[in-house]
Write a structure and sequence with these properties.
heterodimer; A: Elongation Factor Tu (Ef-tu), domain 3; Elongation Factor Tu (Ef-tu), domain 3; 3 domains; 6-stranded mixed β-sheet; 25 strands; globular; B: Rossmann fold; 2 domains; 4-stranded antiparallel β-sheet; 11 strands; binds guanosine-5'-triphosphate; binds magnesium ion
Chain lengths: 448, 308
Amino acid sequence: MSGTSEISPDALSSADERVGLLRLATAGSVDDGKSTLVGRLLHDSKSVLTDQLEAVTRVSNERGQEEADLALLTDGLRAEREQGITIDVAYRYFATARRRFILADTPGHVQYTRNMVTGASTAELAVVLVDARNGVVEQTRRHAAVAALLRVPHVVLAVNKMDLVDYSEERFAEVANTFTEYAKALGVPDVRSIPVSALRGDNVVDPSSHMDWFSGPTLLEYLETVPVETDPTLEPARFPVQYVLRPQSDDEYRDYRGYAGQVASGVFREGDEVVVLPSGQRTSVAGIDRLGVAVRQARQGESITLRLADDVDISRGDLIAPVDSAPRPTQDIEATVCHVADRPLRTGDRVLLKHTTRTVKAIVKDIAYRLDLNAPIDGVLGHEQHLSELRANDIARVVLRTAQPLALDDYAIGRRTGSFLLIDEADGSTLTAGMAGAAFAAPGRCHS
Amino acid sequence: MTTTIDKGTAPGALTHLDALEAESVHIFREVAGEFEKPVILFSGGKDSIVMLHLARKAFWPAPVPFALLHVDTGHNFPEVIEYRDRVVAEHNLRLHVASVQDFIDNGRLRERPDGTRNPLQTVPLLEAIESNRFDAVFGGGRRDEEKARAKERVFSLRDEFGAWDPRRQRPELWQLYNGRHRVGEHVRVFPISNWTELDVWQYIEREAIALPQIYFSHERDVFERDGMWLSPGEWGGPKGDEEVVRRVVRYRTVGDMSCTGAVDSPATTVADVIAEIAVSRLTERGATRADDKMSEAAMEDRKREGYF
Ligand SMILES: Nc1nc2c(ncn2[C@@H]2O[C@H](COP(=O)(O)OP(=O)(O)OP(=O)(O)O)[C@@H](O)[C@H]2O)c(=O)[nH]1
Ligand SMILES: [Mg+2]
């Protein structure tokens, strides 16, 4: 392996502003070694600075551990250190010559599933850990299901604690097969399995000397090279309006009127014929300003301001899309939800629904079924039908009716325009994370 | 910011700085769209300067729709106050100042034995939020700074005591920030959560953002305490056998003068600084903040009480 174990200062200097960013999250059951793996990744890629390592070593020694407990690099809260578990997501940042990484270390405990969902919702890649001794357990299945529902594009299975199973090739293959079969059934398009020991450092950054039988990349090599760039020209263009910019100043911008937002997907170009939803008014893109610079086009992820050819009535919450590929506004939504609140969600509940920049009232019409993670059917998930309420960490299919039409996409088409929150109107808390359309990609099942 | 034409052909992937910038701008615009009275915490340090720059770009060509709030410890670097006032005048901004000194003078706060005023900022901050009815407060905190900050949401809900409860944080899904809150509560918003120290400096270089001179190498009278170079002042230094020496230093962070240390550095330009921190083996807070060294959970404890 070259160029990964040592970060050259050149790699980080201003010259290489062009390296891309990869957002990833850990997943897997409690104590399977997620935080230790993250610590190992940071440590062996030389991303841990002297004072951080000293602090972690000091705390470890005080507890009677001889070596630094690398999990403490992310388990930074008092309560986490007292209990030796992760409670909430920690974000860590590191870089190699090839990529920058934003890493979310999530908790494995079932009680904190909502925090795992938080970490995974923005991830392009999930590293699912499994303890090689225990294999795939219920919480592994839950997290894999969440990653599949969230359509995290890449999943890496790290079969951890290989040091405790004598670095057995057979055991690795067994766990990897079970997991891969399950993930495939959930419609996860890309699964890669790597045998590791987070504690000892095997195959995390440096290749293991204990597992000559494994010829694949180390975890870091894979993270550096997995292709995550998608071609935005293949996706429908979507622009949720965040804010209307009207300076009304005395200078050259006296008559400026622009619609500020971030391109949710696809590409917008000057001259595009567009429709404003839900009103349905048509106009065209007169100009695009990217934070003060006029540009001809803008792609997914860019924060821009659109100027339109006609004086149409537009405000925050509207969606601008090309005339020929616009979503059809609807008041009836079928979706998969992860319930993230302690307060249950019941059929008949009146809530707020936040979709892109628009918030509307909604009613829970039906809870069609809940996914049962305890009873896998055909290796996939069982269903519990006709429920009256959802509880914390339930994953279910629901039917909603909104007070106004929403320009909603299937989540499979756009993570940004297919996702929504249900919010408690009384105290403002987030109740549920919703994903419109079919739950899993084929060959997963979606009965509704 | 001027209007030029950039003739992009096929849209390429965003660079990491473009991606971070776009994310921060999105956060500013969400707050402008959903809150009644937001305010930007502005200390004159590099993170708050970058925040203000991002806010200006987010609303161009309209003015920034938020006021600034400076929580003033009274132990200021004169260059930083000059910088603050210049920026406020240049961009026609509104500045609120919450003064720790005022609270000490009227007896509501007491000077600490160690002379440090960093922890004393919480009360004036909360009072300013309450009396001005600010409902969203932008902070320049970054998750890579410290292990408790690493756990915080972009939209961080605070109760009427300003308290942060790390065990009961609101889930934050996708880019759907939920800023709803009850009367008396407010939301701390961290638009540069995902930036590292190096990102901040690379962005300062790319955007040619001016900074107070103390961020660059200069000669200064300093004395050593706890392995850091501190500036002498009425807050209690030098003491005993601490000896004042003249050294070539710069500041990596800007905070209360009584507890912010300088580092030995010949870096006179932004490019020098970038080269320096790319090879530094110490974090910025580890190298320069006495207040963080007080205990393992110092930051978490301060945040629970309503600190930035
Ligand atoms: N032998 C061995 N032990 C390991 C390995 N990885 C982790 N451990 C140990 O497993 C225990 C749990 O590790 P953590 O990293 O805290 O697990 P986690 O998955 O982050 O747990 P939660 O975040 O609470 O879900 C610790 O005692 C680790 O030292 C490994 O590769 N080999
Ligand atoms: Mg953990």
